[in-house]
Design goal:
Layout lengths: L2 H21 L13 E5 L5 E5 L3 H9 L8 H23 L22 H17 L6 E3 L3 E3 L8 E8 L5 E5 L10 E4 H5 L11
Antiparallel strand pairs: 1-2, 3-5, 4-5, 5-6, 6-7
Helix pairs in contact: 2-3
Amino acid sequence: MHKPALTSFIIGLGFLTLLAGCALPKKEVVAVPADAFEVCYGYGCKTVQTVTLDDAQWFTIEQLFSPKAASAKIERQQLSLAIAQMETFIGEITHTQDDLPGTFAAFFQDRSHQMDCVDEATNTTLYLRLFRERGLMRFHKEGYRINRGFFLNGWPHTSAVIEQLDSGKRFAVDSWFHKNGIEPEIIPIDLWYSGWHPTPDDDS
């Protein structure tokens, strides 16, 4: 090999080696399980945490949909129970098991493991999508979050949504009214928009 060609070969080899070195990770990459998902808390999804449920926990969720619902109304009841159970499981992982109802009960306390309506609606929408992907929802699909109020006509509030497939009717799925692990309210969207709240006796 001629000297100029040899020099070019050595330079090229060194360049490739440098590129390979740059491509190497600077620290170990932790593999994320394929069935992992992200939940959030801390008011306005300040904290996002990756979590997984084990087979036994998913079996418990799936049993809440057994036998399969014969109507959309029954499926909404199943969804309410399943969301409450998801909150219980996730609460133990994220330390949000003591989440209080509403926004202001914990507003002047440590909010790092509390949830406002944005946290609740975001997580509930995710749970609904996971249920659908697992074939647990037959009569509904998850929708986009909805908002109501803007100070002048009520305090701003947001909720998850489901849509009934055969009729297109939409329902708010609102777990913000209750503490962690309590069944969310599932009500027609027009009623929710009106400013509806559960009675004090329901806020357990």
